[in-house]
Design brief:
protein-disulfide reductase activity, 17 helices, 3 domains, transmembrane helix, mainly alpha, four-stranded mixed beta sheet, about 5% strand, Glutaredoxin, 4 strands, about 400 residues, elongated
C-alpha cells in the first residue's frame, strides 16, 4: 500500500502537467500573489485552505465510492460486469489519447472559475479545481473511483484520494508561496499531451487489472506484459511529441525503457517461480481426517476479483519455505468465493464469521480456530511462516 500511495501521489503531481491543469498555475500564482503583503503565515493559511478544499472534494468522492464496496464486490463476480468496467476504462483512456473530449456544461465551469475573497474564496478555489480541470483529470479520477469501489474500504478510499489531492495541490501551493520560481518552469507545449497520454496508459493498465480474473493466471500475466510493452513503445518512441526542453527526449526514452524492463520482469518472474501450495476442497470429512492425523488446517477464503487474494496466491503461497512447510505439516483448504451464493458456501461463511476476502483461518490440531492468527489481508511469506509455526506448536502466545 505504501508503494501504491507513492504512485498515486506521483500521479497527482503528473496531473499538474496536463493541458487542462497547467494553465491554472499562473492563475493560482497571481491569486496568491495578491495576498503576499499579508505575511508569509497568512499565505500559508490560504494555501492550507486551498489544498483542504481540493482534498475534501476528492476524499468525499473516494469514501462514497468505497461505501459501495459490498455491492461492487458482488457485481465483480460477473464476467460481464468486469468486461463492462474494462470497456469504460478504455473509453476514458481514449479521451486522454485525444480521440474524444470530456466536456462539462459551460455554466458549471463559469461558476467554478469565479474568484471569491477571504479564506472562503481560497477554499472554494480548491473545492472547484477538479471541475475546471475535469477534461484532463476527470477520466483518471473516474478510473481511480472504480478501483476504490472494488476494494470496499471507506478508510482506504479517503486515504487514496487524499494522497492524490496532495500530489495535485502541493506543487500549485509551493509555486504560489514561492511565486518567483515560476519563471523556471518549462513552457507549455506538446510535452503536456505526452503526459496526458501517460495517464491514458495508466487507465489501460487498470482495465487489464479488472479483466484479468476472467482469464487463467498465465494469460493475465501476459496481458499485463503486453500493456507494459505497448506503453513503452508508444510513450518512448512511437509518440512524436516534441518540445524545446532537451531533457524531454531522455524522459521519453527512460519511460519507454522502464516499461519494457517491467514487462520482462513480469514474464521472467512468472516462469522462474516454483510450484505453489497444493490445495484441497473443503469438506467435513477432510477436517475430521486432519484431526485424526493431528495436523493443523489452513482455510483460505478467496476470490479471483480480490487483489490481496491474488497477491497472497502469487507471492506467499508460492514461496518455497511456505510450500514445503505446508506439504509436510498442514492440510491446506481453499474456499473459492468468486461465484459465491450456494447454500453450502453461505453456511461456511456463517460458521467461520467471514465478512470479506481474503480471510485465512488457522485451525490447530484439535480443529479449533486460533482467532489471534486470523488473516484478512496480504501478508509476506516471512510473516506468514511465523503464523504457521505458531499454530503448528499449538501453544497460544
Amino acid at each position: 500500500m505504501i508503494w501504491t500511495l507513492l504512485g498515486i501521489f506521483a500521479g497527482g503531481i503528473a496531473l499538474n502537467l496536463t493541458p487542462c491543469v497547467y494553465p491554472l498555475i499562473p492563475i493560482t500564482v497571481s491569486y496568491f500573489g495578491g495576498r503576499s503583503g499579508q505575511g508569509r503565515g497568512n499565505l500559508f493559511a490560504h494555501g492550507a485552505c486551498y489544498i483542504g478544499g481540493l482534498s475534501l472534494t476528492n476524499s468525499v468522492l473516494g469514501v462514497m465510492a468505497a461505501l459501495t464496496g459490498g455491492l461492487m464486490g458482488t457485481l465483480l463476480q460477473s464476467p460481464a460486469v468486469l468486461v463492462a468496467i474494462a470497456a469504460v476504462m478504455i473509453l476514458f483512456a481514449a479521451s486522454l489519447f485525444g480521440f474524444w473530449e470530456l466536456k462539462l456544461p459551460s455554466g458549471l465551469t463559469q461558476v467554478a472559475s469565479k474568484a471569491y475573497s477571504g479564506y472562503f474564496g481560497t477554499l472554494f478555489m480548491g473545492l472547484t479545481l477538479g471541475v475546471v480541470a475535469a477534461p484532463c483529470i476527470g477520466p483518471f479520477v473516474l478510473g481511480l473511483l472504480t478501483w476504490v469501489a472494488s476494494m470496499g474500504s471507506p478508510w482506504l478510499g479517503f486515504v487514496i484520494f487524499f494522497t492524490l489531492s496532495l500530489g495535485l495541490g502541493l506543487p500549485l501551493f509551493f509555486l504560489a508561496v514561492f511565486s518567483g520560481q515560476i519563471e523556471k518552469l518549462p513552457r507549455s507545449g506538446e510535452w503536456m499531451l505526452w503526459v496526458r497520454k501517460l495517464m491514458g496508459w495508466v487507465l489501460v493498465g487498470m482495465a487489464a487489472y479488472f479483466i484479468r480474473p476472467i482469464f487463467p493466471k498465465s494469460i493475465g500475466v501476459f496481458i499485463f506484459a503486453a500493456v507494459a510493452v505497448s506503453t513503452g513503445l508508444h510513450l518512448g518512441w512511437i509518440d512524436r511529441s516534441k518540445t524545446a526542453f532537451r531533457g524531454f527526449i531522455w524522459i521519453k526514452g527512460m519511460a519507454g525503457t522502464t516499461c519494457l524492463v517491467l514487462a520482462v520482469i513480469l514474464i521472467g518472474t512468472w516462469f522462474m517461480r516454483g510450484p505453489g501450495v497444493t490445495w484441497q476442497t473443503y469438506s467435513h470429512e477432510l477436517l475430521s481426517e486432519a484431526q485424526r492425523l493431528k495436523k493443523p488446517v489452513i482455510i483460505d477464503f478467496t476470490a479471483d476479483w480480490c487483489a490481496p487474494c491474488r497477491e497472497l496466491d502469487e507471492v506467499t503461497f508460492h514461496d518455497r519455505a511456505v510450500v514445503d512447510l505446508a506439504k509436510r505439516n498442514f492440510i491446506m483448504v481453499k474456499v473459492d468465493l468468486t461465484r459465491k451464493g450456494s447454500p453450502a458456501q453461505e453456511q461456511l461463511l456463517t460458521r467461520y464469521g467471514v465478512k470479506g476476502v481474503p480471510t485465512v483461518v488457522f485451525l490447530d490440531r484439535r480443529g479449533v480456530e486460533r482467532q489471534d492468527l486470523r488473516l484478512v489481508d496480504f501478508l509476506p511469506p516471512d510473516k506468514f511462516l511465523v503464523r504457521m509455526s505458531e499454530v503448528k506448536k499449538g501453544v497460544k502466545p
